[in-house]
Amino acid sequence: MIDLDWKAKMVSSDPPNKPPRLSSKLHVSIPAIQFRGISNTYPIPASDTVCSAYEYYLRLPELRKLWNRKEFSDWKTESILKPALQALEITFRFVSTVLSDKRPYANRREWTRRIESLTTSQIELIASIIEDEAEDSTTRGTAPIADLSSTEGVLVRDGSYAEVWKVPGETTVVNKTSEASLLPRLATWQTSEDVAQKILYSIECEMRRCPYTLGLGEPNLNGKPTLEYDTVCRPNEIHALKKSPYDHIKNQENQSVYTTHQILESWIHVAKQIIQRVTERIGSKEFSKASNDCYLIERIWKLLAEIEDLHLLMDPDDFLRLKNQLQMRSLDEKSPYCFRSRELVEITRSCKELKHKVPEVLGVEVDPKGGPRIQEAAMRLYSEKREFQKVYLLQALQAIEGALKRFFYAYQQVLVVAIGSLEAKGNGVLASSESCDSLTQLFLEPTYFPSLDAAKTFLGESRSHEQPNGVERRSRRKQ
C-alpha cells in the first residue's frame, strides 16, 4: 500500500533512541538541494539589433516566406513537412560545398561522414512525419503525390521519369525523379557519386513504411506513388538563397557557417509547428498522437545538437578570422550566440510551457494550497496501467526536457572548443562560482515536472520494499 500522505510521514531529523521498525507505510526523506542562482526562468533573446543582423546574414526573412507559403489547402502537414524537405535540400547543397573545398588542410573525410550522418537523421525524421500523417485519418491521403499507376508503364522521355524494373511478376515501374533537386545531379558527379548513392539508399530504406516516397531518384522498388517534390520543396527558390549578403568575404568557412545555420533554422521552424500541434492535440484529448509529436520534438533537439557539432570540423584559424570579418562579437552584447535566434528562444520557452499541460493530461486541477494532488494522480496512473496513452505522453514530455538540456550543454561545449573558454566567458556562456548565466541555467535548473519526478520517487521507494512475489522485505537490522 502506498502512503500518499507524504507530508505527515517525513522522517524526523532527530535520531530515535530505538532502531526504526519497518512499516507498511512509505517513509521517504528528500534532502533539500540548494541551487545557487538556478530557478525555472525563461531565456531572453539577444537585442533586436543583433537578432536582426543574424537574420539578415542567413536571409531568414526570405526563407520564412518559403516555409510559410500555403499552396495545398487540404494538406495539414504542409507547414511541417515543407521546411523539413527544404532543410534536406539545403543539406544536398552542403554536400556540394564540402566536396568542392580545395583547401589541402580541410578534413574532408570526417566532413563527408558527418554530412552523410546528418542527412540520414533528417530522412529518418521526415519518414516519421509521413508515417504519422498516414496514421491520422484527418491527414491521410492529402499530400500532393504523383500516382505512377496512371502512366500504364509509358516512359516519358523529357528527363522527368526514369525506368526501374521490378522482378516479381515482371512488371515495370515508372519512378518519377525530381528535376530541380540537387541530389540527382550529385549522383552523376564522380566526386559525390558514392555519397549521393548512399543518401538515395537511405531514402529507400527509411520510406519503406510510408505510403509514398520522395521521388529524388531512389530505387522505389515497391512502386509507390511519389511526392510532388519540386512543387512542395521549390528547390530552385531554395538554391537561389545559396549566397549570403557577405558572400564577398574570401573565407571558405563563410559558406559552411551560412549553410549550417540555414539548416538549423529550418528544423527549429519545424519544431515550432509541431509544438503548436502538440498543444492542440492535448486540448482535444488525442494523447497518443500528442506523444508521437513529443518524441518528434525530442529527436529534433538531438538533430539540432548534431548540426551544431559541425562547427567542430571547421578550421580554427579560418573560423576565428570569419568571426572577426563578420564582427560577430559586440562588447555590449552578453547573451549567448544561440540566443540570436528568436525562434530557438521561442521553442525553448514553448517546450518549458508544456509542463502546464500535465494537470490536463492527468485530469486533475492544481491544488491551490500546494498539495500533492498532481503527484498522487500520476502515481495512480503509473501503477494502474490502464490509460497507457497518457503514460506515453508524460514520458515523452520528460524526454523533451532531457533533450533540451542536453542540447544547451552540448552547445556550450561546442562554443568553448570553437572560440576558446576565455572568449566564451566574455560572451556570457561560462558561469563563475558566484553566478549562473542564462545558458548554463537551462541545463542546471530543476526539473520542469516536479510532480512527475516526485511520483516516480515515491513509487520507486514503495517498490523497493517489495519482493518479486509481493512479500515485504525483512529488515536486516537486528531488532
UniProtKB/TrEMBL annotation:
It comes from the Eukaryota. GO terms for molecular function: heme binding; metal ion binding. Transmembrane segments: none annotated. This is Nematode resistance protein-like HSPRO2. Residues 207-462 form the Hs1pro-1 C-terminal domain. SUPFAM superfamilies: Indolic compounds 2,3-dioxygenase-like. Residues 1-204 form the Nematode resistance protein-like HSPRO1 N-terminal domain. One of its GO terms (biological process) is L-tryptophan catabolic process to kynurenine. Residues 460-479 are annotated as: Disordered. It comes from Populus alba x Populus x berolinensis. Pfam families: Hs1pro-1_C, Hs1pro-1_N.
